[in-house]
Each structure stands twice: as structure tokens, then as C-alpha cells.
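protein under study:
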Amino acid sequence: MSRIHDFLNEAGVFFLATEDGRQAKIRPLGAHVEMDGKEYFTVGDFKAVYRQMTENPLVEIAAFTPADRKWLRYTGRAVFEDNKAVEEKVFELLPHLRQAYSEESGRKMMIFTLEDATARIIDMAGNEEAV
């Protein structure tokens, strides 16, 4: 899992792909935390992405590192957890989110990890490495 975490850190921004009906949707994310041998991600409970993931939990995360010109495909089933330790770590890393996700705002940070997942790092020549 550390290899995925390090790749996402190097990329900075990564993309989450979901499905909305028959239409693919993709959006940039940046928040992720490695804890207890898992990589955790977050979305807001008020966003369409959360609805899409509850309707179809099969998602893919993609990231690209320009320095070595490699990309990551991390594919699996999104499983949401109520994990206060991860939430606090996200707030520590990105303090501005604490105001966005609070009782006052009425918005909740939804924390998920990927299960039944595969991860591959691919270079520009098409060589793949299973992670």
C-alpha cells in the first residue's frame, strides 16, 4: 500500500472515475491517507460523486507523475467507513476542510477505501507493474 500512497503523493492531484447512469464521470482529488495498511480517500456526502459511488461502487483512481512519466491505475470497489482517526488525519493535512465538513455546515466527509482492488503502474512504453 505504501507504493500507492507514495505514487499519489508524488502526483499531487489524482482522478476518481465513477459512473452516472451510462455516463462516465471523472474528477480531481487530492486528499488521501495511509493508515492501518489501507489507503483512504474522501468525498462529500452532498456531492454527486458520493451518490454515484453508492449506486455503483466500482471505481478507478488514476494518477500521473510527470518526472518519470508513469501513471497509476487503482481499480476496485469503494467501501465507506466511519473512521474518526482518518477524518482527523485529513483535517490535520488539510485544515481548511474542517470548516467545510462540520456540524455547522451540515456536510459530512465520507471516507472510503478500495476493496477487491488491483493497482498497476504503467510507463509510456506500456510496460506494467502490478503493485
